[in-house]
Amino acid sequence: MKQGNIKGWLGLLFMALVLFLPIGTLRPNRILPGTTFHLYSLLKEPMAWAFVVLGLILMAFLWSLVIKGGKYTPALDVFPWILTLLPASLLTAIAKYETIEVVYDPEVVRISLSSGFWLGLIGTILILSTGKRKGFLFLLTFLFLLVPPLLGWTPHLALLKEFLIIKPTFFMELQRHLVLALVSVLLAILPGILLGYGCYRFQRGREWILATVNFFQVAPTLSLLALVMIPLTLLSQAYPVLADWGIRGIGFAPAFIVLFCYCLLPITANTYAGFDQVEQEVTESAVAMGMKSNQVFWKVLFPLAFPVILSGVRTAVTQNLGNTILAGLIGGGGMGALIFLGLSQSASDLVILGTLPVVLFALIADEFLRRIEITAHYKMGGTYDSAHQRV
Prior knowledge:
391 residues; MetI-like fold; three-stranded antiparallel beta sheet; 16 helices; 3 strands; 71% helix; flat
């Protein structure tokens, strides 16, 4: 079975589960438990009927795409654009849910999104990933999700209420998260390339270099944080001026150092692989043409290895955006501070609010760097296959 067909069937399964799983939870306030409700409870809302109609269209689409062997039908062109409206329609219907059994205070009542909604969103993304222009369709889907809250259609949505409460803190922690994740990658690029080139040039030191950078990758993140915190604490106590500069056992400094170390392996390993894949006949031909060693490196070796090096940078960026969450455990800030605060208060919506930007930025960064990587492959005269290898 083709990969696209697997994604289509899996997306269909997730969409079917929306009919049976709870899609929301109505809670009188942030503390008290609430009551869950299902899709059939929303059928009085026009948006819910829109969801049902789009679900029927989904069935027709998957029938033509999967069961009929992928034969062309007009639905294949129109359906993905309609499908981008599905999560936003369901979100609006959920946020307007009301019950006549219990009267709630509209100032403090909140509606949390449950498993049914999230599976519907994942199913939508899986189905969109089987078609063309999936990157643009993903972006359109998330933009449509922002429209109902911006227009005031979701006043009781718990995610929106959590955001309004911590709005200044949210943007401050998001900025700190991005600085920690991206700056540590930028500073690791040059050392990683130098270490990778050292592996390529010096065979005796290759095992030592790769073993060292691999240690940072395989060591548990919390253990590595603890190892870094001890010497930084001793240094800040011995030299108070370092503490004034922000170099302490907790906070930004240990988190930054650990993230920097975690970036080294993918960049170093891919740099070595990029240089090693260049055939020896190519460099020998460059030397025979009269090029000096530095010319061979900058005009032949490095350009040919660059797409693979960029792939390592892409891996480092995406993993760093996730690893930075742990900085919240040691006072380093970032979205991890919101996530762990939500866990301590049993506020699941605050946890989701801290998690969603991390996932979104990781997807955006991965797609952006992937496109640059593909362009670099084609400029080098190669093609780009599904395994992300230059051929």
